[in-house]
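Sat 14:20. Reprocessing the chain from the morning session after the first attempt stalled halfway. Input below, unchanged.
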Amino acid sequence: MFPQNYDWRYRVISNLLSPRDNPLHHWLPACGIAFTAVLMLPFTRYLRRNLEIASPHAARASSAAFIAGIVALICTCFVVPQHLHDVLGIRRLHEFLARSAAGSIATGMLAACWCAWKIRGRSLFGARLFWTWLSVTLLPLAGIFFSESLLLLTRLKPSWAMPIRSTLRHSVFWHLGFWEWTGAAAVFVFLCAAVFLPTAQATLPHIDLAQDDCTTARSEAVSM
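Finished this time. Tokens:
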């Protein structure tokens, strides 16, 4: 439905939401992203509940960062990308909200990684959860940081960055769109790992003891 050829490796996600770049169907991805963000909200309580035993402060910080990122992500769907007029006194409000959403969600993922690191030695699932979360968190962050740093360097010191730019400008690693989509996939894998790797067993080892106590109590009651 995109008027031109949309290549996710080179085009940013905001192109899909832009009435200028996607005049007929920009509302469709906007609704899709907003709906996705709403569906992410239950994960904030789920992560906080399962990670609180490892570090209550980090678990609350992770939950709060995820909520802030989700709210900012929903707002990006209603503030269209444009650079001609100020919105609430900000020229690039859409870009500001998008970066705020990415930064907040990344902060939440890092805080969750800290909790997973503290419980990684309690079970095999705790170690798997930690390494899965760490890999899907640090790889996109490193790529985005590298891409943005090179872009900033080309503006501040063109003479230094021109050789690097000429070498990487035709590579997908140079383009922010590639790292945006990679980050989106990383968040999806992160949340899937939180569900399919049983965090309750990794973070709440006292559950088995509580179940044993209940079983013992029931057995004694029956025998009496």
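The two ends are 72 Å apart (CA to CA).
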